[in-house]
Amino acid sequence: MTKEQMEQIVLANMKKIYLYCVRRLGNAADAEDVSSDIIYELLGSYERIKNDKAVMGYIWAVADNLCKNYWRRSMKYEIVEMPDKYVGTFQITAEEELICKENMNLMRRELALLSNTYREIMVRHYIHGESCEKISQNLKISVQNVKQYLFEGRKKVKKGMDTQREYGVYSYAPEKFLINYFGDCSNGYWELFERKLPGSIMLSIWDNPKTMEELSMDVGVAVPYLEEEVEKLEAFKLLIKKGKKYHSGIVIFDKDYVCEIRRRAGESIANNIESVKAAVEKGKSFLNGTDYSCYLDDENVRGWFILILILWEAVQKSEEKMKTHLSFPLQANGYKGYVMGCRGEYPVAMNGMYGMYSLEKGYLRAINYKALSSKVINPFERGAREVFLACEKRLSETTELETLSDMISDKIVHIEEGMICPNFVEISERCYKEIMDKLALEINDMAELAAGIRDGAADLLENQVPKGYSEAREIGSIVSMWSMLEEAASAVIETGYLSKGSDDQNVTTFYIRR
What we know:
Arc Repressor Mutant, subunit A; 4 domains; four-stranded mixed β-sheet; 11 strands
């Protein structure tokens, strides 16, 4: 007989088995437990039945044996009659009370580990006292299915209570997790990880795919509270369910990987530092005769402007030279790009790269190197755009007075003859492109160097992550792009060729007029 055939026969006879146990044992609670044991035994022994016609006889033989066994166990306790005039006391010992509490806690733990449907049906029936018929009506499932869930749920709880469970490391020592996005729009992703729990979920699943119950024990959060978090991560395709287990939908790398590709990038720049210097000096000579201007301008500021121009354009151009092709897949938020995660403290050399393209006359590029300045220019912060617009038009005032005050204090802008003026480089797009064209050979050489670094990083990540993550190469090339920009600046500072500049200068932000 097959397992499916036995399941059908058991479903059809569940009520008869239960009523048989009630008649034999005379107690509904005992009958429920023993009938569960009978059904469990039948479902596990279907292979013993060689003749399908003998199945009913086998069912009632199993029922008879298990009822007898139950009676034998219950008769172990001797019944002693007390005299009529005896006044006794009953007291639960401290040990018995501790055992009772422990069992209750174990039962609650196992209920908290059940998946949603099992848990809801068990709680409705055993805690709120709802009948199987009422549960069937409320949940829009058949009565037979309700009984099957109750039967399987009891078995899960009993089995779990006998299991030695241990909470995973994420329940008491969560690791740092950072989400990152590269593409059109990151709408929705950053907000998901403002708390630690979603990050712990992602890292736990990355370590090993897990069921909801296994995940619950690993992060130390009961399933009812975990389900909503998992649903959100599923909606963004950060988690993917295959069968009963959840798998990571994104590539996750660690800080060791970032440190290694940064080391490689820095080494490549250092080995080619003389070529870098020559390219920068050549570019500086092209600034005369352009509309380039900068507050507190000097050779150091000009050097950084040319260096970052070469690096920025070379990194973009390197995508044409890489073996790794960037496909920019469509993400769950409706935009094309890449989502990736990093475990541990992400070692960064800059406080973000920002581009503001919604100014009226031009756009802003801010690359906030930590080695060059502790202040961070983020044109998307509250009020910043209005100040930059006022700066762009050389206005004498702005509605964002508090933001203006902060930006003056941080030496991002200054007041000159009553007008709001920038502390950073300004140049027209026409002149910017003229310099680019004159440095085409140097940009191309740097792009070749960048392409090699990025392909090497792609190979490394592809070999580190589990098979099946097709975007590993592309993500490796993206992470190494940032590393190339970061380490180039660090390598140049270490040689002493360029320096941080004064507090009043801003060497990492540029305004390009259209």
